[in-house]
Amino acid sequence: MTVVLPVTPTHPSRLGAALEAAGVERGALLAVAVGDRVVGLASAGARIVVQGGVEHLSAVDAAVHPRWVLWDAGSVRALVAAGVRLATCWHIAAAHRLLHGGWRADPQRAWAVEHGLDHRIAPSMGQLDLLSTATAAGAAGDPADPVQPDGYLRPEWVDGRWRADGTMAVTWAGTALDLARRQRAALEAAAPSDAEARRWSATVHAESAAELLCGELEADGLPVDLAIAAELLRDMIGARPVDDAAATAARAELDGTVLRHLPPGSGIDLRNPADVRSMLRRMGIDVPDTRAWRLETLRGDHAIVDDLLRWRKVDRIASTFGYGWLDQHVGTDGRLRGEWAASDGAAGRMTAGAGLHNLPAELRPMVRAEHGHVFVRADLGQIEPRVLAAVSGDPTLGAATAEDDLYLPVARRLGVERSVAKVAVLAAMYGQTSGTAGQALRGMQSAYPTAMKYLADAAAAGETGRPLRTFGGRRLRMYSIDGAADQRAAAAGRGRYARNAMVQGAAAELFKMWAVTVRARAARGTQVVLCLHDELLLHVPSAAAADTVDLVRDGLAEAAHRWSPGSGVRFVADVSVVDSWADAKD
DNA sequence: TGCGGCTATTG
DNA sequence: CACAATAGCCGCAG
């Protein structure tokens, strides 16, 4: 039974009371559609129009603690931009990516796939001006219904037709609610056991919260000391050029440090690898490519190699992380902001733009806590082999995780040096077959048969194009190799991809569960400012540092337990309190 | 203007 | 240069 309650929330408690009266309780799905000065809410028992903005939703969240249903990253951005920070959600796009794989997860696609419709022929706004008879027939019916007679969403609703109208906003929220429930049912149907259904559900919840976290990471940014940044850049690439002419001159001067070894007017472009290669050949250095690691060993052959490598380093900083980068991505508030994606790429890792994930180590001293604050920095130790132990259920590898350094017991068991053991474990997870890992890899086979079988099964699925699911339930679709010139090489590549994605993907799921657990428990004034695959950086008031260190450790234990209850696998984290990201760990 | 190749950086 | 990613510049095709 649907109840419609027009509410003008002059006080947030009125809205909370309305929700309570409608039977919305902790953890219940509550869809929200944020329009223009109007918000639509939809729960199992109520449809509520909120006249006005979203500013009261934080208070409602704290009081009722529902699981908010959101469509996508755009919904998250709209809420965060309005200052709303929700505790949890059901993120339809995140759930879609986990359930079905792939990256695209817009409302129309998520809706179509969950209704057994072909998303490739779904109607879109672009088609409306060239309506074919078929789509016109499909689009008939009541335009006030977001769902067409043919089952697809109406493109104009997807496009935001509902934003200005309260009744339409609640209808759109109701559509999201229907889809979320359908996704939840599909997840339970796809899970082979109750344990997996619980685990996959926990993963969707964590992935959803990670979407909220990404919205906050985008809004909050990473604290940067602009004075230190300028100083670092001045030392590395020189002072900021005053105009374009000065910039050109500085570039020519830098090029000269390498070109001085050549006769004038040689026409070599240092930014063109083919030119660099022929330049080196002229000096008697013949290389198949000019990558730094290859030139490294040839430093003594000719002075130009040394100068070239130095030029590369400076040019790289100047072009990618120079003054232009600083101007573009660091705000006047000293925060470095980039775009964040909660689940990107092959295995569902978090990704970030603006150099946040590949900032050169030499520039990290610019990342500094603000006055009265410190960073709590935490990174997981040896996460991938520990994750392999958990997901494969290998008892011997699991026992090895009891040690702080997992590679020591592995080395003892294989009867090899620690360094060899480490290479062997990594080679097994990455699918390396060549190189020095061969002998130790055979040792791995007899010492850890369960883990090795898990990896071999993943590789076999990849090679034959069978899709997989990670430990947390994320579907890994195998890309087509039909067009590949060398079918066997392509199949082997997909085998390595699958083998690695099962481990890296599961590690990403555990990491996100940790990150969102920390986010949920963090005190007011504490911000998660960076997530880097196995590392968390928190910006905290100095007085809260000690408590936050405990929180990060407890959060890892809590997340690991929720992620793999009873696996017995131990996860470890290095945690330190620092003023700068570059500071040594304690 | 878009795309593949090369290069560098990170986990 | 095993696995994953972002990003810049160059040459080339359209």
Number of domains: 4
Q: What portion of the residues fall into strands of 2 or more residues?
A: 5-15%
Strand order of the largest sheet: 1-4-3-2-5-6
Into which percent range does the helicity of residues fall?
Answer: 40-55%
Outline type: globular
The average pLDDT is 93
Per the CATH scheme, the topology name of the largest domain is: Nucleotidyltransferase, domain 5
User: What does the radius of gyration come to?
Assistant: 27 Å
Tell me the structural class.
alpha+beta
Number of helices: 23
**Largest sheet data:** 6 strands, mixed
Q: Would you count the extended β strands for me?
A: 16
Describe this structure in words.
The chain is of the alpha+beta class and 586 residues long. The protein folds into four domains: 3-190, Nucleotidyltransferase, domain 5, CATH 3.30.420; 227-327, no CATH class; 332-383 and 508-578, Alpha-Beta Plaits; 385-505, 5' to 3' exonuclease, C-terminal subdomain (DNA polymerase, domain 1). Helix content is 50%, strand content 13%. The protein contains 23 helices and 16 strands. Strands 1-4-3-2-5-6 form a six-stranded mixed sheet. A four-stranded antiparallel sheet has the order 14-15-11-16. Helix 3 crosses helix 9, helix 9 (194-220) crosses helix 22 (487-521) and helix 11 (244-259) runs antiparallel to helix 14 (303-320). The protein is globular. It starts with a strand and ends in an 8-residue tail after the last strand. The mean pLDDT is 93. The structure holds a DNA duplex (11 and 14 nucleotides).
